[in-house]
Fold:
Amino acid sequence: MPQQRFPKVEILSMAPHHIQFILSETDTSMANTLRRIMIAEVPTLAIDLVEYSENSSVLNDEYIAHRLGLVPIRFMAEGSLKGGDCHTAFLPHRECVCYDRCPRCCVEFELDVNFDKVNQTRPDTERDLALTVTSRDLISNNMLVSPAHFLNEEEQDESHDEGISIVKLGPGQHLKLKAIARMGISKEHAKWCPVAVATYRFWPIITINEEACNMLTLEQKQELVEACPDRILELDEITGNLVAVENAYEMATFTEDLKTVQNAMKKRPEDDDFVNVVQSTDRFVFSVESTGAMDAEEILLSSLRVLKDRLNYLAAEVEKLKD
Structure:
């Protein structure tokens, strides 16, 4: 019988748009499963249908609809400030019993921007410039759902626009439409993907052979430090011994140069390495960045929920086969 595992998660850093954590006491199959779920099976809201009343902009209807589909739509539960999991608040459109659409499966956004009307309220210095239609102009009929205009305040301060740019309008141009957002997963279409980045790498195990290193001169030790492009080693200021830097696990990616240099220092090819760097098989460093539709923390929790639901479903189906 296989050995039972008890996976653990250790948070290294966390912000609304980014989370870095360690998944340990498991194997690559579980790590990759979690990564793929975050990418492809966490449900989010995205604009899926656009109905135009008027479009006299320079972009055609399909182009604008594609841009609207890629605007992250954020659901915040009542009393919460986090972009969260929307699976309990909405039904998939195909599973809803409504004829066309209803508040249980859809959220409607209205956009109505007329250059000539808006231009009358703009400062004199801006009246000759094109008017940028952004995600701020999308008005939701659900107070819990809104476009995610920026990832953080820093991005907002650096932006020249009030939100995500959709199209620019000039004199006499008018854009009026109704956009319908629905819940889905990115296995169906990438616009429902909640992550911009979801990667993991193996935790590096750095072993320094103190006995062998004592046979090296200070110049040779310094050569080993400089040989590794990731700079995962340093010399202790007091003892002069080789030690791993404090954040070596973040930087250790390429160590072939280190291996080449220390092989040249060995008296015999079969001698032990001075420094050995191998990949852990049960410890992984994850880095997840959100698109803005959900907080990074919520993406992790939602992916764990999806994984649990899938395993429960599998267990139920196996039990049926036994019967």
